[in-house]
Amino acid sequence: MFGKRNKRSDRFDEDQYDEYGEYDDVEYDTDELPIVEPVEETADFDDSPAGEGTGPYDYDDVSELLDTVAEQRLDLGSVILPVPPGGQLQVEMSPDGTPQAVHLATEHGRITVAAYAAPKSPGQWRAVAADLADSLRKEGARVAVETGPWGREILAITEGADLRFIGVDGYRWMVRLVAAGPSGAADDGAPLVAAARAILSETVIRRGSDPLPVRDPLPVVLPQQLAEQLAAAHQAQVEAQQQQMAAQAAATQTPVRAQPQTLPPQPRRGADGSAMQQLGLN
Description:
Pfam families: DUF3710. This is DUF3710 domain-containing protein. InterPro entries: DUF3710 (IPR022183). It comes from Nocardia xishanensis. By secondary structure, the protein is α+β, with helices and mostly antiparallel strands. The chain has a domain at about 35-220: Protein Transport Mog1p, Chain A. Helix content is about 25%, strand content about 25%.
């Protein structure tokens, strides 16, 4: 879409890679998250298979061209991506209200794109893919390593969903896409996979200049309007939880009944004086 790419962002040789630290595996929950905002259809979304010369792109290489299509892209800070027709945005929040991940929900399944810090030398996705495949196998998934437009892809058949992991190395960044759907949705040639590759081929990565540890996720920054909506929804949720906890605490408290005070028996009094007086003892 954006034309010729800068040489520094070209695909790297997968046979060259450095050693990296332990990969922090991420669990992919297939339960549907609340849809917080529908995303308008992008008029120029191309769902044709990715080919040579396509993205993902480095922001520095295409920033001027990106201005012409900014309204047709979803800017999440570290990643800028197109949205397929009918796609809806789902945001996964941490307990403190910080966005952890952003998903695109489609009629065929869910697509998640995330970017990570990487060294200048190539090969991070190769190492991550190997670690990821081992981790998935240990969890009982059936795993296959397949070849896609950018090289190796991981297909995992789990008990809850079928998953396809696609990764691409860039200049000081690595982008990873996860396509999750029902049985058969992650197979090569399935509509979900075609949409995932089309999205990745038009994705732009904004790495930034800050030094970051290798494999650290690049920050997700939500558009202002969406961030305000989510902040309000999160605050309302927190207040509702606090009210519920207060009500539960009040219900568990046992009320203490006031016991009536028992007075000692009083001597009987006659018409002409007290009982003692009547007995002549006073």
